Each structure stands twice: as C-alpha cells, then as structure tokens.
Design the sequence.
C-alpha cells in the first residue's frame, strides 16, 4: 500500500480500510490495492484522494505482477499529470499503465498475455470520479441504498446491454460469469470507462472490490456491513463471509466512509472539473515581426546603396532575430486557460444498479445460521480457539434479536464471525467453508 505523508486531519474526515485475502482455493494472491491520501489542501483541491483495486490474471506470478504494476503506475502517473483535469489524468494514467503491462508481457514468455482489471475512485471537492476497466467494482451506499457505479466489462453484462440476455439477470446462468471483455495488458489499446462526478455526502460509504467478493457474497449483505460496522470491521467481515462461502478466488475490499463536511461536495461545486491547456490564440507577436522586417529591409538597402556587406548584413541579422522572436515569444508567454466541465454534466452512465439493503429478519437469520454452522466445528475438531468469546457475541446477538433490535443483533453476530475466523487464521487454519449456505 502506498500512502503520501498524510495530514493528521484526514484521519478524522475519512474512515477507510483496505484488506486483501488469498481465499480458500488459490495458492497466491493476484489482487492488488493502493490508497493515496494527499498531504496538503492545494493537492486536495486539485487532485483529491485516490483508491484503487486491481485483480490480476495470468499463469505463474503474471497476474500478481500485472495488478501490482497497474496500482503502482496509475497511482504515480495520476498525480503527475497536473496540466490535465482529474478525469483526464486518471484516464491517461490507466491507458499508460496498459502500455507498460503489455510491454512487460511481451518481454518475457512467462508473462505473455498477463492482464489485470482496475477500478479506481478519486474523492475530490467537485465529487467522486471513477476510472474503470474489467469486472472489479465500485459501490456507493447512501441511506441504505447501494449503487454500483461501474459497469462490468464481462460477457454477461455486455450481452445484457446488447439485448442478447434479459436485463433482469434471469438468463445469466447460461453464460460463464468469469469471461471479461476488457482488461489492462493483453491488447495494445484499451477503452477506459470514466464515471461521475458523483456527489459526496457525509455518511456516504464507498466499496471497491474484486470479484472474489461480489462473486460468492450477495450484494444484499454489502449494505448492512458498510452501514453498521466501521470500515475495518466491514472490510474484514466481508472477506470472512466470502471465505465462509467457499472463497473461490482472491478477495479484496476497500471500504471508505465520509465523516466530515470537508470531504463532502459543497453546493455549486459538483462537476466543476478543469483542464489546463495553453492558450492557442496568442498568435505571432506583431511588434517583433514589424521590427524584424524593417531590419531586413534596411540591411538590404545599406548593402545595395553603400556596398557595405558587413554593416548591411549586421542590420539584416538583427532583423532576422527579431522575426524569430516574433514567433517564439508568444509560446513563452502563453497563458493557461481552464476548460470547464459544466455543472451537472456527467461522465459515463452510472450508477448501473440500485438496491435497498436495509436489514431484515431474513438477513439476520442467514448470519445466525452461519454462526451455528461455525459452532459445530468445535464438535468435530480439536481446534483450540476461543469459543467462549464467540459464544458471548452470539448470546448478545440473540438478545438483541429477541428485542427486535435487528441492526445491533447483526453487528454482534458479524463480530462473532470475524472473531472466530481470526482465531482460525492465527492457528494457520483457513477456517471452514459453508459454501452450501
């Protein structure tokens, strides 16, 4: 993880955690993530905070290399292109990263055709901007409504968009879910989706994740974790849930909650994203040109009338220099102008899905059943984990559930699951898989 020198105040304005896990079935972790918080107010105004998740693909260590190259390259280059708007800088950084990954893959047969997804989120005073390639995802939760801000570049989603599959997802089972249509690395050119800017409010919670999370775990479970747990608990609980449900892939989750008005989009700011570029209307400086041509003419007259090549040539040379300055001076003195994306103008088509993620009894019952299945492990194994603390969390959850305090019941059961899964990890045990749930 890369971080700039963080101003302490950001810690009270943003609650964020990024976690990555190998999963239950993979021998290595090909996911990568990066978080960059700018170190001063000027950088916040111009570039904002950047969060990235990438999911690598390729044999041996190729996928791991590709995802790491993407996160490192984009996080560096995005802040490098200060003359571009944030959206354009993000697009250019991702495109350049594609070229770097492709070049590296062509230099070594072991890395041939390696690739990676990338989903990036920039929080700015003007709103949140997303840059995206592949099927990793960016979500925003607000008032129990979970919105997917990215479009999956997968065969299933592309066929839905083209009308070859029903938009309600009823025909998805007939198509392999892991076939993606865009990634960084395999192809010379890549199309980058830009989304936003999306308004940011205090209380908004964002989630970036690889498909190792949204594959096994229902989106209905994302919202409650993001809303009722702090970022560290939410990220860990989501990873634990994915592993309990089989953990078929690497899992990465970055959870970001907005705590302060300083991060929120202020009235009138949404969409005011600027691109700096040199003024093209400065033209040729007329004063230098007039003086130059006069000098050339006088030099020619002196040469012809006085037959003095030295004096005439000297005057003509001064005139020639003046002409050249007439062309050069405007470019040296050109002003920087701002091209503005007008307020209300939106990039992309997101959000692409919306769902209400309020906690109900059905969801709490699902979590209770998982806790019961985990407790059975103590009856079939001799793992020396702290079952008493696990039972205390479950008992507290049961009491809250009995009192119809479903939100607090959910929190206690979630903490029970993460506590016991941590115990399994401490003992170098991956923990049980309840994928039949």
Sequence:
């Amino acid at each position: 993880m890369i971080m700039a020198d963080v101003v302490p105040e950001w810690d009270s304005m943003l609650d964020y955690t990024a976690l990555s896990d190998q999963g239950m079935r993979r021998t290595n972790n090909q996911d990568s993530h990066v978080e960059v918080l700018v170190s001063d107010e000027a950088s916040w105004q111009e570039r904002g905070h950047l969060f990235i998740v990438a999911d690598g693909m390729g044999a041996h260590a190729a996928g791991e290399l590709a995802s790491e190259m993407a996160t490192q390259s984009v996080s560096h280059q995005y802040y490098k292109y200060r003359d571009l708007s944030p959206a354009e800088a993000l697009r250019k950084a991702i495109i350049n990263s594609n070229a770097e990954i492709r070049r590296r893959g062509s230099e070594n047969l072991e890395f041939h055709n390696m690739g990676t997804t990338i989903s990036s989120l920039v929080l700015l005073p003007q709103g949140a901007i997303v840059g995206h390639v592949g099927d990793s995802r960016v979500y925003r939760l607000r008032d129990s409504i979970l919105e997917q801000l990215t479009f999956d570049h997968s065969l299933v989603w592309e066929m839905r968009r083209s009308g070859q599959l029903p938009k309600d997802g009823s025909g998805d089972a007939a198509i392999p879910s892991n076939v993606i249509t865009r990634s960084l690395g395999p192809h010379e050119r890549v199309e980058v989706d830009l989304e936003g800017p999306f308004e940011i409010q205090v209380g908004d919670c964002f989630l970036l994740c690889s498909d190792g999370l949204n594959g096994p775990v229902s989106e209905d479970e994302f919202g409650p974790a993001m809303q009722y747990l702090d970022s560290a608990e939410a990220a860990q609980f989501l990873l634990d849930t994915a592993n309990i449900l089989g953990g078929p892939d690497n899992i990465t989750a970055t959870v970001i909650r907005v705590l302060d008005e300083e991060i929120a989009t202020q009235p009138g700011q949404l969409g005011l994203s600027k691109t700096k570029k040199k003024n093209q209307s400065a033209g040729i400086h007329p004063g230098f040109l007039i003086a130059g041509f006069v000098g050339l003419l006088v030099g020619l007259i002196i040469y012809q009338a006085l037959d003095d090549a030295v004096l005439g040539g000297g005057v003509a040379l001064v005139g020639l220099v003046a002409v050249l300055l007439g062309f050069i001076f405007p470019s040296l003195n050109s002003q920087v102008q701002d091209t503005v994306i007008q307020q209300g103008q939106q990039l992309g088509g997101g959000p692409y899905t919306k769902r209400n993620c309020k906690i109900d009894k059905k969801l709490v019952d699902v979590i209770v059943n998982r806790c019961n299945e985990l407790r059975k492990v103590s009856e079939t194994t001799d793992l020396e984990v702290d079952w008493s603390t696990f039972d205390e969390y479950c008992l507290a959850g049961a009491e809250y559930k009995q009192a119809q305090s479903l939100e607090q019941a959910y929190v206690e059961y979630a903490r029970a699951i993460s506590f016991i899964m941590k115990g399994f990890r401490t003992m170098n045990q991956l923990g049980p898989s309840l994928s039949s749930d």
Q: What stands out?
A: Residues 129 and 196 are 5 Å apart (CA to CA). The two ends are 33 Å apart (CA to CA). The longest strand covers residues 49-57.
